[in-house]
Design goal:
By secondary structure, the chain is of the alpha/beta class. Helices cover about 45% and strands about 15% of the residues. It has 15 helices and 15 strands. A six-stranded parallel sheet has the order 1-12-11-10-13-14, with helices on both faces. A six-stranded mixed sheet has the order 2-7-6-5-8-9, with helices on both faces. Helix 2 crosses helix 7, helix 4 packs parallel to helix 5 and helix 7 runs parallel beside helix 8. The longest helix has 29 residues. The chain is globular.
């Protein structure tokens, strides 16, 4: 793993590497996804089933799974795992209920201004179904939508020959989901955006997926809203000399096993820690079942950065703007004020990133690839919309009318001005 040093001035090479990593999609993927979307638009359910057969090697007997189907699949899950998922769901719900926002109203001199907050009507949640099942994705996406008051939440997930994965089904049951669509890939995103005979249009589409899913979300945006274009997972760790090298190495590997393009960056003021982590990470790597994936992401997009001070360490971290930021210092809470850009922050040696992935209650759907500079974790806010309203009394209208007319005329919009003037003229005649 490459070691950078701010004193040597080579950290800019790391920034360039991470920016190159974030570049997604290709002309070929863009074209293929466009063709899939067009096919779903023209052929609806038939296109979905054809793609299931083509990509997932199964043509499901039922495209739409109901509450009974979800219940039947969920019953196959180990009750102990179900109980853990239920507790995690309770934690997630408690955290997100604090995010509920209400409207407001301002009254002043005959003028009333207000804001209304309303939930979206229907949301589609994409749940990956490749080499692993991700029930945590169900909970993290569906529970905030439920807390927001969304009327209908629909899951789409690739079909399996053996049927709906019991863990996915259990998470769906816990989250109160009544409908699962047996389809994945770009075709499922298209179905949610435009609707088919069996899949109703969604107002918003959320959830992670591969590059084809991400590209499909990009292309349907505007027809439906989306959460974000998520890139590969990443962690950045800021640590001082008191951090334990084996903890740091384990936390870096926990992200690197996700994806061949995942990234883990350690930033530290201590050269000995840097060397010990570098040794530890290769020792631990040998014991991982997903060693091949983690090894590739370790060599491609991971690094250690040595800085001269903690202030400089956080300058680097803020420039990276990571999805996950772990602070392993003597007093980690004291360092919060130094953080400007991060998706989610983990404070102290007993708050590793997986605690947030599964159980603590904070959301694990986070901005990646530096987008934490301007975006936020998935929250209840993502599942509501805001509307403004205003009301003028006659007296208040007469007071402000001339100002509005002059403002409209300044912009050359005479019809706007006339909309006010015609009312003013009527009152003055």
């Amino acid at each position: 793993m490459k070691i950078y040093d701010t004193k040597a001035g080579n950290v800019k090479d790391l920034y360039a590497l991470l920016e190159q990593r974030s570049k997604s999609s290709s002309a070929d993927i863009t074209s293929k996804v466009r063709d899939v979307i067009t096919n779903v638009l023209e052929n609806g359910d038939r296109a979905l089933l054809d793609y299931c057969e083509m990509f997932d090697k199964v043509r499901p007997e039922k495209l739409v799974l109901t509450s009974d189907d979800i219940e039947a699949a969920a019953s196959k899950l180990d009750p102990a795992i179900y109980a853990i998922m239920k507790e995690a769901a309770d934690n997630i719900r408690i955290y997100h209920e604090k995010q509920l926002a209400s409207g407001y109203e301002i009254e002043s001199k005959g003028k009333t201004l207000g804001r209304i907050v309303r939930p979206l009507s229907r949301v589609g949640v994409y749940v990956p179904g490749g080499t692993a099942a991700y029930p945590s994705t169900v909970l993290m996406n569906c529970i905030p939508a439920s807390v927001a008051g969304v009327e209908e939440i629909i899951i789409v997930t690739p079909p399996k020959k053996e049927g709906l994965n019991p863990a996915i089904a259990a998470a769906a049951k816990i989250a109160g989901i009544k409908k699962v669509i047996n389809a994945g890939g770009a075709q499922a995103i298209a179905a949610l955006a435009y609707g088919t005979e069996s899949v109703p249009k969604a107002d918003k589409i959320v959830g992670p997926g591969n590059m084809f899913v991400a590209e499909a979300k990009r292309q349907v945006y505007g027809t439906a809203d989306i959460d974000m274009i998520a890139g590969p997972s990443e962690v950045c760790i800021v640590a001082d000399s008191g951090a334990k090298a084996d903890f740091v190495a384990a936390d870096m590997l926990s992200q690197l096993e996700h994806d061949r393009a995942a990234s883990a960056v350690l930033i530290t003021t201590d050269k000995n820690l840097a060397e010990n982590v570098n040794t530890n990470i290769y020792e631990q790597l040998e014991r991982l079942p997903r060693k091949e994936i983690a090894s590739e992401s370790l060599e491609k997009f991971s690094a250690i950065v040595i800085t001269e001070s903690m202030d400089e360490a956080f300058e680097v971290a803020n420039r990276v703007a990571p999805e996950h930021l772990e602070i392993l210092t003597e007093n980690p809470r004291d360092m919060l004020s130094k953080v400007k850009n991060a998706g989610s922050i983990f404070l102290g040696e007993y708050s590793p990133e997986p605690m947030g992935d599964y159980f603590a209650g904070t959301n694990h759907v986070l901005p990646t690839s530096g987008t934490a500079r301007f975006s936020s974790p998935l929250s209840v806010d993502d599942f509501v919309k805001k509307m403004s309203y205003l009301s003028y009394s006659e007296k208040a209208f007469m007071r402000d009318a001339d100002s509005v007319i002059r403002f409209a005329e300044t912009e050359g919009l005479d019809a706007h001005a006339n909309s006010v003037r015609i009312r003013l003229s009527e009152k003055q005649s």
